[in-house]
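Re: weekly structure request thread

Next one in the queue (127 aa):
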Amino acid sequence: QVQLVESGGGLVQAGGSLRLSCAASGRTFSSYVMGWFRQAPGKEREFVAFISRSGGSRYYSDSVKGRFTISRDNAKNTVYLQMNSLKVEDTGVYYCAADRRATYGEVVTNLNEYDYWGQGTQVTVSA
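Done, posted below.
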């Protein structure tokens, strides 16, 4: 089992940057693939980014590709989401999630496949 705690959210102007962090408990962090998701008010939670156990494979939604970067530091049990060129439509609660069952090479974008979730951190982008 793993517990996830996000941080780094806040209020930023359009065009600005934020870096989100997700700290995981436990000694098996490297056995989980990790994902970032977000949920805007009145909308469903959506996939943002994925990273494999080693960090060698990354995948992004089309809406953030080229602007966001996911990374992880397994020694620190932490996954990051660097968000640049933020847009108003990036506003929402951002969640990190962990999945231990993904097979080698599998990219997990379906939120229902993730086993563990953080409490979320609010990102608000103003015009």
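The mean pLDDT is 96. The CA atoms of residues 69 and 82 lie 5 Å apart.
Next request, please.
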